[in-house]
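Hi team, as promised in this morning's meeting, here are the two structures we talked about. I've kept the exact order from the run log so nobody has to guess. The first one is mostly here for context; it's the second one we should focus on when we meet again. Sequence first, then the predicted structure tokens.
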Amino acid sequence: LREMKTLIDAEVARKDLVEHIKLGPGGIPEIAFIVPLVQLIRGGREPSLRVRGLLPALSACEQLGLISARRSKRLAEAYRFLRRLENRVQMFADQQTHELPADATQRQRIALALGHAAWADLIAALDRHRAAVSEEFDAVMAPAQRARTSAQAVEWSALWQRCTAGDVDTEALVEAGFEPLEPVVSALEGLLGSPILRAASARSRERIDRVMPALFAAAAESRAPSACLVRLIGLVHAVARRSAYLALLDEQPVALKRLTGVFAASALLADRVITHPLLLDELFDDRSEGPPPDREEIEAEILRRLGSVADHDLEREIEMIQEQRLAAHFRIGLAFLGKRIDAMQTARALAAVAEAVLATVLRIAERDLIAAHGHIDDRPGEGAGMAVIGYGSLGGIELGFGSDLDLVFIYDGAHAALESDGEKPLEGARYYARLAQRFVHLLTMLTRSGRLYEIDIRLRPDGGTGLLVSSLEAYAAYQQERAWTWEHQALVRARAVAGDVGLGRRFTEARAHALDARVYGSELRRQIVDMRTRWRKESDRSNEQVLDLKQGLGALVDIEFLMQAIVLEHATVHPRLLGVTNTADLIDVAANASLIDARQADILREAHMLMLARSLANKLDARPRLAPRDEELESATRRVLGVARELDLAFD
């Protein structure tokens, strides 16, 4: 589009058409470049942008936050003014023309027709609107000018030229701070020897030659030069045939700086951008600097996008949900890295994404089941008659990047004897079993964009040997009569996350009854300590140098077990403990009930936030959940174990 506009500008200058109200600077075509540009970039994923007419498209851009209200108003006012002026010029000339008249009488008539007392007033208004359009056009379309004549820029360019000639200057790379050197050399040689690069168009090669020196310079200034450059080279390799992406990197220094910051800080986010270059849109979108969206916003966005999928193309629907999930995770990762949200807010935001995805996928699973077997419940709404229960990190609202989901399914026992009304009817229990199977299949279906989530369903009654779906009545009876202590520990973090809302409320009541009905004696603490000891032996990867942030002594699971012990022991007297499932919230409730004192609560809160933040940071940089035993971690774990001993839970 920019190149096309350059050709038009050259023709305007050649023919001296500056006073041409259509082709001159700030004319309607410039508005017609700005808005379609947004439509072209975003329209593939934003169905509401696929509208005819400039003003409706401009309004759609504003509603999506892609063009600010102020900019939208300026452009709309200018467009209407220019259209009215064009109409009056042609009406008085009685011909298809865009030239302002030279005749003084015609000029005055046009000015009066447009509400201006004099021609000079009209021209002043025209100049004002043209200037506004030109300013907006330049902000959107004009390439950012990067200084390329500095000595440093020349050096980076020369370094890249030597690389393309087969001479990777290792001495210059080391001097610039690219250590360890071996990964950088390997990445450069891989790029230069790639068939993709050799087959790239001349335009793509030219843009690669322009952008690589800038990538060298940006990576050298980052906090992890070697790792950042290797990841940037991986991105260039991935988009080598897509010259538009290379142009964005070349012409948007602010976005490039943002990109290098992310690539230096997060191997996970870098890998996702390389694998899914569409995520580059998030870096070029100023909204990525704002707070992450909540569950309702994510779900509404997914449903809006799904509305554009023709004929319920199932694979495309799941891919579109995956794209939205990846984009939401990316924004959350950016917010965490940028310290705009803390670890707890990050974990809760990730849980909100999961809930939105679960709700949407359940609707699709139910739609497909109804098409095959009809309805079994005449009440409208998602998952009518079945609820999805989240356990573990999802139930505890502490999800991590890449966490799997622990799920349990329950249905309304009153529907067990019913039969669906389709051509191939199913009785109630089989109907909900099919719904759950379909739901799990869609969540784990492998598409070009990957799987939505890994699912663990082993926490259902009787574990792997139990039924996939239980009636609420059977589930409640199991929890009250047969569940082991560790199953009640898991139940502390369980909550309804999708499906039938009324059934979800009944589950919450059944959960509370199960947890406050059983009176645990003096054996409770011993059972919990024994369970923790066994689990630690199986899973703790700590050693003298590193701490397992999840399973290590005094780490996250110890804090979770400590709070679960408090809930199981005191829920009958302090029912408010049953109103929350999140560890941080449980600490607050326990402190308010004087089950732990203020000092103990502070120790647990601080340690929990520290371990959670370190775990999230490790995952974002594609590192295991192991952290060097620095003084901050050692102090936190010692204090947690001290609180545990004070509560007669000797985990060590």
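And here is the second protein, the one for discussion:
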Amino acid sequence: MAKEIERKFLVSGKRWRLSADAGVSIKQGYLATMDDRSLRVRAYSDGRACLTLKIGQTALSRDEYEFEIDPAVAEEMLGQAIGTVIEKVRHEVEHKGFTWEVDVYGGRYSGLVVAEVELRDETDKPEIPDWVGREVTGDYRYSNQAMALSEGALRSSHEPQSQSG
């Protein structure tokens, strides 16, 4: 079992692109959800696909079980997803010993840009890049699950990425 420990932030501006990789497109959908767990399927533009079970209610840390699956099976499962299939491009940005994942959302969440940093343990204190804005760790509205199930009402209230810097 792996432990997912991460912090999530809104992104301010476009400076992150200066050191980002080319990115990979992701389609993800939820097959089952409960208060403290979710079963998610993802298909990546590079041909990978995975099925992930996440368990836990804390904002910072959850148990995570991830399994590689056949991409054709993933596409079939996405057709059975609950709610909206989330579409985003994920970029990786290295900053002071940590890898930041910057998700640029498309579709109904176009304009939303979120950065996550995975921690080794809950006491890690990564240096926050200057392109990172407000922290939204624990704000359910910014979870992919809430967006897929339209429970977060971000369609009209998310803070779009600033066009400056």
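Starting points for discussion:
Helices lie at 71-78, 144-148, 154-157.
The CA atoms of residues 148 and 162 lie 24 Å apart.
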